[in-house]
Write a structure and sequence with these properties.
Family: Belongs to the tubulin polyglutamylase family.
Pfam family, one: TTL
Protein name: Tubulin polyglutamylase TTLL1
CATH architecture of the largest domain: 2-Layer Sandwich
Bound molecules: adenosine-5'-diphosphate, magnesium ion
Number of strands: 18
Subcellular location: Cytoplasm, Cytoskeleton, Cilium basal body
CATH topology of the largest domain: D-amino Acid Aminotransferase, Chain A, domain 1
Structural class: alpha+beta
Shape: globular
Keywords: ATP-binding, Cell projection, Cilium, Cytoplasm, Cytoskeleton, Ligase, Microtubule, Nucleotide-binding
Strand content: 15-25%
Length: 399
Amino acid sequence: MRVTFCTDLDKSVVVSNCEKRGWIQVGPEDEWNVYWAGTMTCRSLFSVDSGYRMNDNQIINHFPNHYEISRKDLLVKNIKRYRRDLEKEGNSLAERGDSKYLHLDFIPTTFVLPADYNMFVEEYRKAPQSTWIMKPCGRSQGSGIFLINKLSKLKRWSRESKTPFQQQLTRESYVISKYIDNPLLIGGKKFDLRIYVLVSSFRPLKAYQFRLGFCRFCTVKYDSSVAELDNMYVHLTNVSVQRHGGEYNSLHGGKMSIQNLRLHLESTRGKVVTEKLFDQISWLIIHSLKAIAPVVATDRHCFECYGYDIIIDNNLKPWLVEVNASPSLTSTTANDRILKHKLMDNIFSIVVPPSGIPDVRWNKIPTQQALGDFEILIDEDLAENTENCGSLKNGCKWK
Ligand SMILES: Nc1ncnc2c1ncn2[C@@H]1O[C@H](COP(=O)(O)OP(=O)(O)O)[C@@H](O)[C@H]1O
Ligand SMILES: [Mg+2]
């Protein structure tokens, strides 16, 4: 059988990877087996109106309601619900101490505005010295983000952004999160981690973490003083923001590999705490996925590769900032190109069965070799079948 692919993303990393596998490019109206689509295309294919029915040999790179994890407000809502549910069932994971969750405190305190304004004010008053970050729920690449350290600034913003044509209901919603003001710095600069996570099924949950993530650095030194509050080159690590910064280094594109970060931390902080940090990162990824698993319309045709944004604070605690359902495949450097090529290659090896032909009836248990640079985060099927477990405890490395 010949395998066909279709993409509405004109990225050479997608096309070259598919062609390398001998797949033939076709248009969206033709018979395709693999579709690397934008999120909107995927949603319209799955919409009731489209009348499109996929057959067993078709797979696509998004779940229809990926926004449950990629929208900033819904991610927070789902994680809060997950913690409440665990608490109700008396699960020790949801234990609290000092009114904080001991194990599930991995997102900065966050409220949705305007809906949760009163709750936010209550929290704000507990520590009026804190800085908060405002982010529009549905945007990306640092667009529309600003920091506030006074309630009056938020009130002024609210007044100014209200025009007669934009009534409360139609206004864009925002999340307001506690700003992590003690980020781990390297060379005096703030950075965040981009970690790729592939999910081939939500129920049962099957997720893989890519070993080759990277850190994205700010171009200017970190400075938490009020004078620099509006300077986004200090506070936002997005490549799209920093690219316009004065000291942007096109040679390494403001990036450092995760392996080098690990070596740096092992030598400056020690092996044990470094190991613990990376375990905690995997732990938070697993629980963020478990939090959305019950609400994702899991469909056997779908898989998705997420770009996790994680900030490490100066105490080596990782914080989940957001999850992208369409992480950038654009390369800024030669190393970046190699990494993204490998990423794409490994994704296809995992989601396509050994026969090389997409088939949703497959049990989605890839061979060790097919994993490439991915490692299993969790596979609830393996948890049931202990014979296949190998080194995994109950199908999950970090229970
Ligand atoms: N709570 C926070 N504390 C510190 N920095 C943050 C926080 N939230 C976001 N940032 C910074 O802002 C950047 C953009 O925020 P993010 O939520 O990823 O939105 P976007 O969709 O615009 O990328 C992050 O990469 C990080 O550098
Ligand atoms: Mg981001």
